[in-house]
Amino acid sequence: MIRKVLVIGGGTMGRGIAQTAAAAECEVLLCEINSALAGKAVSTIATSLQRAAEKGKFDAARIPAVLARIRVTDRLAEGTESDLAIEAIIENLPAKQALFKDLAQRLSPQTLLASNTSSLRIADIFSDVQGPGRVLGIHFFNPVPAMPLVELVRGPATSDATLADGREWVERLGKTAVLVADTPGFIVNRLLIPYLNEAALALQEGIASAEDIDTAMRLGAGHPMGPLALADLIGLDVVVEILETRARVSGNPHLGPCRLLKEKVARGELGRKTGHGFYKS
Ligand SMILES: NC(=O)c1ccc[n+]([C@@H]2O[C@H](COP(=O)([O-])OP(=O)(O)OC[C@H]3O[C@@H](n4cnc5c(N)ncnc54)[C@H](O)[C@@H]3O)[C@@H](O)[C@H]2O)c1
What we know:
By secondary structure, the protein is α/β, with parallel strands linked by helices. It has helices spanning 12-23, 35-54, 63-68, 93-106, 122-125, 160-172, 188-204, 210-221, 227-234, 236-250, 259-266, and strands at residues 4-8, 27-31, 70-73, 84-87, 112-115, 135-140, 149-154, 176-181. The protein is globular and about 55 Å long.
């Protein structure tokens, strides 16, 4: 049973995974690239728990114990005791490959190795890792504490025992798991991201304002959030990366990101995480 979890990357997703795992009684070690970012990750988690308590979604009395179960570090070497190592670092294949090559040597052969990637193939991320039966994709959604779905991704050699352990863990975190093959975008992003691209293209072509595109899909399609606001929440860099991977893997350049999305990413307008995307936040 997974009790000790090493989370690598303390950005949007890594913080959410750390918080959710600690709230489900796991001991969490959260690793960032330097101590300033590690410290920032844990203070953001504290704020997130406080906000959830203020909204009545989390018992305020539990916050100190949850925070006490999260340790932060900038040294991967401290995570050798983990049952599961899950990464949520930048969406970059060489970076993830290098991380797991290093981790596989440090951790016990029994430790499960998981990636939270949105768009990269599990087969590619773990191509150089010994013990491919223990690797899988565990794809959470943003914001992790609130979103109930997790996609479990079977790599080419992922064992049934690994999938069963992964499923048991995510269910203990209060999530519902779906199992999906190692294909670009898995289920949700395969359907969702082309829709976000189409919304950005509609804005680029000037058919309506950002506000009206979002209002149309909220009130006309019953979506809780419009596509451009959702793209800002996900991160425009993440959206572009997923579209580029899909275009590359399919050999169909029409599935790639529209010009407006690429321009925004080039200008550093990445959405909520930089305070500016389709909207200013
Ligand atoms: N943002 C989303 O909505 C979303 C949803 C599901 C999955 N994902 C995936 O999760 C991953 C992370 O996305 P994010 O939005 O949290 O990114 P982010 O940019 O908010 O955070 C990434 C963090 O990783 C840290 N980092 C980079 N290299 C590291 C290393 N070697 N060791 C430790 N820390 C390192 C960075 O300092 C940064 O804080 C990506 O693979 C992304 O595709 C994102």
